[in-house]
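Question (not urgent): is this output format expected?
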Amino acid sequence: MANKVIISGGGTGGHVFPAIAIANALRSIQPDIEILFVGANGKMEMEKVPDAGYDIFGLDIRGFNRESLAKNITLPFKVVGSMLKSKKILKDFKPDVVVGVGGYASGPILMMANFLGIPTLIQEQNSFPGKTNISLAKQAKKICVAYDGLQKYFPEDKIILTGNPIRRSSVLIEGKREQAIEMFDIDASHPTILVTGGSLGAKTLNDCVKANIQKFVDAEVQVIWQCGGNYFEPLADELVDTLPENIKLTPFLTHIDYAYSIADVVIARAGACTISELCAVGKPTILVPSPNVAEDHQTKNALALVNKNATILVKDSEAKDTLVDTVLSLLHDDNRRLTLGENIKSLAKEDADETIAWEILKLISK
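Got this back:
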């Protein structure tokens, strides 16, 4: 009989793509393994997971709304409903192990799995874990982490330093520069900046680029600008007659490997998945942590790299005044770029997906 694994979580690309990477690694090691995803209705996993060839169940669950307390009135009912649906999913599918990668759906399904005595494994992506994972870790069998020092939050004997799973196709950049030049229609004789706000985009980064287009033109710098799907149409409409040729606006980079291959500097948020990709490609990077995340974990992720001289951190609140000047200055400092690129590359763990997959299979064998 084939082994069965449930992988739960999502909400953003930072949770969805590592989850899919783990599933792909499991299937590569054990082709007949049965894998079921559990996500949150209305979130991107409900589209991306089927696109990757896996089945998914959606829970009617969301997080606590800090901006409007009134919108949390139905939250307890959603949690109870999600727990009951999780119980049915577990009873019907009968998994050998349940894996949580973070996101709204991880909580209910892992809580119910622990209650039913099904082994659980947590994949903690950040340098500062959320309260849900800290709570779930008490009964989890293994906790796969991407940063040192998490024994402050988790039982030390359960921790395995694996790194974060990444989309391998996104970090294979060797030999792609010439094709990238053609793909983006850019001039190889001028430096190129990649600006990416992740799968959902980042308003702060978009505002910074938009406000400083003339600076980029004057500096003869090219910008590949991934603005996010929600921001693309308003920006494209606003800039339709004024966007210069050296600024390449796009909602999402399906082949971000080509953008990485041509970039001299990358500007990004500090999500765990993004950082893991940046470590793998080894490009000098400026991180602008999002302030709109639980426990300000993106700042803590970025500081873990800053402490190893592997990135430059620009605060979100200061980005409007300093970000573009910082990146232009970095482009003129060859030694600093070389140091940052070498140091961030030294932190890469490119086989995290396989390492985590083997830990899951070890739990099954027990």
